[in-house]
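User: Let's play a game. I give you a shape written as tokens, and you guess the letters that built it. Ready? Here's round one.
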């Protein structure tokens, strides 16, 4: 199950699978060139972990999240990431900044190329590098789980026109404050980034609930 599990999870968390599409075990077996049995086991494991839902007799699709779940995700992220930022602001080394700058560079490059999955990977690396640098394995494990689930709707978080550039700018604000060792500004910048992303996701969710469609409102196009 290991390889099939990791490959399918990677497809999920990098935005390469579509919402409202039902995927069969045979579909993944074909693209991964493995037998159906380990794929089926992987899909059941990902369902148990909350990434997928089973559509009886037909296959699996990406799980949709409720407003409460999205709010809970971001409340937890805000508590962890602002705490980490506050305690790292004066401790980051030049090597740490090089890693953050590299993530920002990859985000800009991915935005220019229009490769959403690469953009999301770079975004994840930016946030997780700070959490890992804090060196609390329990916080890191919690954030890994949250980030993996949040990655399922990463494309929706970027669906608003101009949002990709806004995310880059928000990260640059965080990075700038950290480079100045400005603890208060760094915390405020991270909080703004997270609350703005949450707001757009909730707007997207409410629009879809109202229309019954898997589309985005016009200003999200």
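Assistant: Ready! My guess for every position:
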């Amino acid at each position: 199950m290991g390889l099939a599990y990791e490959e399918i999870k990677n497809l999920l968390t990098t935005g390469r699978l579509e919402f409202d599409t039902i995927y069969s075990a045979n579909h993944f077996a074909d693209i991964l060139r493995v037998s159906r049995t380990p794929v089926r086991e992987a899909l059941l494991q990902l369902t148990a972990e909350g990434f997928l839902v089973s559509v009886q007799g037909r296959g699996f699709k990406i799980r949709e999240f409720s407003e409460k779940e999205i709010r809970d995700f971001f409340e937890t992220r805000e508590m962890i990431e602002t705490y980490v930022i506050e305690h790292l602001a004066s401790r980051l080394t030049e090597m740490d900044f090089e890693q953050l700058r590299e993530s920002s560079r990859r985000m800009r490059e991915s935005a220019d190329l229009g490769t959403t999955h690469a953009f999301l990977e770079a975004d994840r690396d930016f946030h997780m590098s700070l959490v890992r640098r804090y060196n609390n394995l329990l916080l890191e494990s919690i954030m890994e789980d949250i980030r993996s689930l949040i990655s399922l709707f990463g494309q929706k978080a970027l669906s608003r026109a101009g949002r990709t550039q806004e995310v880059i700018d928000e990260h640059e604000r965080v990075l700038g404050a950290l480079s100045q060792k400005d603890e208060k500004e760094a915390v405020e910048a991270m909080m703004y980034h997270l609350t703005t992303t949450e707001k757009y996701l909730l707007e997207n969710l409410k629009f879809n609930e109202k229309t019954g469609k898997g589309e985005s409102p016009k200003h999200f196009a």
